[in-house]
Amino acid sequence: SGDGAKIKVDQKAQDQSAAGDESTVNVHAGDTITQKEALEGVLIASANNVARLLARWDAGSETAFVAKMNAAAKDLGMTNTTYTDPSGLTKTTVSTAADQVKLAKAAMKDASFREVARMMEYTDYKGTRHSNWNHLVGSNNVIGIKTGTTTAAGGNLVFAATKEIGGEVRTIVGAVISQGPGGSDNT
Length: 187
Fold this sequence. Notes:
The chain is α+β, with helices and mostly antiparallel strands. The chain has a single domain, classed as 3-Layer(aba) Sandwich (Beta-lactamase), CATH 3.40.710. The protein is 32% helix and 24% strand. It contains 6 helices and 7 strands. The chain has helices at residues 11-16, 35-43, 48-59, 62-75, 97-107, 111-117, and strands at 6-8, 32-34, 121-123, 129-131, 142-150, 154-165, 168-179. The strands form 3 sheets. A 3-stranded antiparallel sheet has the order 5-6-7. Strands 1-2 form a two-stranded antiparallel ribbon. The N and C termini lie far apart (42 Å).
């Protein structure tokens, strides 16, 4: 179907659903979700348990997926990025704004990714509604992409927006990395 392959939820993803110290989506072992719903969970709800489930589904293990992530980063010219986990939670996963822009430009070429990145909310297979943590989506021509926050990394935003330039609609991609608590007033 247009929603991609079916992914069987494993026990690990279910167990991680209850983690209180990270963003997750409630899933049950044995259930199936589509690739699209997995992407919605990761991009919209910041579901770290689903990011790790996707990694195991795609590469057989989280470690193997991290190797694929680092190879893809190298191919994209992301010379200041090192991935050490699929969700980006570990302190040893590091990147720069310039590298995240390279990744965002590549990701926004994919129609399925663009469709999910611009969603303001989604409803999961259990009927639970999840709002996008990126509250910029849907205003000022913002069409994505992702927020992320950890104590070590601070607040981060990779965004895409459309702007008419010379009669042609262009997509502009940018990133803000390591924003401290409270941010700044850029209104």
